[in-house]
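Lay summary. Proteins are chains of building blocks that fold into shapes, and those shapes determine what they do. In this project we predict the shape from the chain. Here is one chain we studied, written as its sequence of building blocks.
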Amino acid sequence: MNLKQEINHFKTLISQGSDLLLLRLRLLRLDLNEQLASVITILAAVLVAVVLLLVGLIALMFGLNTVLAHEVKIWVFFGTTVACLLLALALLCWIPHLWRNSSSLMNDTLQALQDDLRILNGSAPQQETIEHEKK
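And here is the predicted shape, written in a compact code that computers can read:
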């Protein structure tokens, strides 16, 4: 190639690379917005769950304290405690699941951005990324 062809090729690479970079950054912004929405959802779910559990538990305990006989109160109160702990544990187990789902989208976009930069530099992208994009 002569110098003019090299310059035109370089201009094309810069133009396409910058367009691709802007596109990937927009996708990353969308993924970050989704991640933020997931974090807000997680915090709201935790807050609502805590408030509802406390209100429900206090109301239940006051009601059961007046209605139940002394021998039954012990089993009911301990049973309620166990049920509340299991529900709280289920909510805590749900949080990492939400986090992993929202993080995977952002990681995929960052990996694609990294592969685009490798392609623009002239090296081959990683094999796992090629297989992922075929799906």
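What the prediction tells us: The chain has a mean pLDDT of 79.
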